[in-house]
Structure formats: C-alpha cells, structure tokens
Write a structure and sequence with these properties.
alpha/beta, 2 domains, 8-stranded mixed beta sheet, 2 helices, elongated, Toastrack_DUF4097, DUF4097 domain-containing protein
Amino acid sequence: MKRGMEMLILAIVIILVILGILKVQDMNKVSSEQVVQKVLTNCEFNQVKVDTSNANIKVKQGNHYRVLFEGRQKLLPKVEVKNKRLIVEDKDGIKVVNGNLFDLFKKHSVVPQITIELPNEKLKNIEIDNSNGSVTVQGVAVSQGEIDLSNGNIMVDHSTADGYDLDTSNGHVEINGSNKGDSYSKDDKARRVLSIDNSNGDITVSYGG
C-alpha cells in the first residue's frame, strides 16, 4: 500500500514537471514572436478591399495615403494597389480562423491592428470580410460597399450611400443614434448601397446631415 502511494505521488510530480516545462516553452515562444509596426504602402487609392481572418480594422482620414500594421511579424498581410484599389489580404497559409481565434483571448496577446489612412474625405467603395475583430470607418465618407464580420462591432460614422441593408444576428443596429433592433433596410435596391452583415456584434451607421 505504501509503495503504491509513493508511485502515485511520483507520477503526479512527473506530470506537474512536464506541464511546467510545456508552459515555459509556450511562454518563451509567445515572447519570442516579434511585434512590429510597419507602413505597408503609400500608394494612392480611392477604393478599399480587406479580406482577413482576425484583426481590428480602422479606416480614417489622414495626411497621407498609407496602410499601417501593428502585430506579430508572422501575421503581416499582403498589400497591393491596382487601379487605385487597395487590397489587403492574409498571406497564404496564415488564414486559419480556429488557430488565430484563440490568440484574441490570450492575456498577453496582441490583436493585429490594420489602419488605413487617406487624405481624401471620400471613398468610392469599401469591401471588408473579416472573421474576428472590430471594423471602424471614421472621418471618411463611404458612398457604397459591403462589410461582412463574424465577431466584433462595426461603426461607419459618415455614409453617403443611397440605400442601406444592415443586419446583425446578435446585437443591435443603430442609425443616427436611433436603435433599429437587429436589422435596418432602406432603398436597398438603389444604385449605391451600403450592405453590412454581422453575426455577433453591433452595427452603428451615421448618414445625412
């Protein structure tokens, strides 16, 4: 009986040591992943397309055309401008939703931040497809576009679209400060429509005035 108890205690100690080693290795791996701040492009554009898995995305008025990235080096997106259309995409092999989603909840994790700046106050078209993270369009007039998000809040503070088709599964839609429930539709067959679909999170849009 005594020998059996000793073997049990020894087994527990060995397991705890192994878990401790694995934990230290994981912490070292996280700390060794370099967090960078980079300007990815300075080319002129008047349309935006973003297709990412996990990032906070902000479009705002600035002094220059540029795309800023802050996050882990290995998550740097691919950026190019074609015919004044800015395209920001995950690099091949990075778009793994389940793998990256856990990073959002780690205590010391750095959620990637993509900031798109343009000196022009007007954006002809915007397309954003993102899985996890917020989407903010601030100080830039959006005439039309599509935003599709799985988890996070969406805010567009200056829309000049002719029509709207806004829907969220878990959250609320706010138009010019007024709560519209979980959906809002107005002239959704118009030529220039802002369409937003969100699975989990709020949608806030301001227009007119």
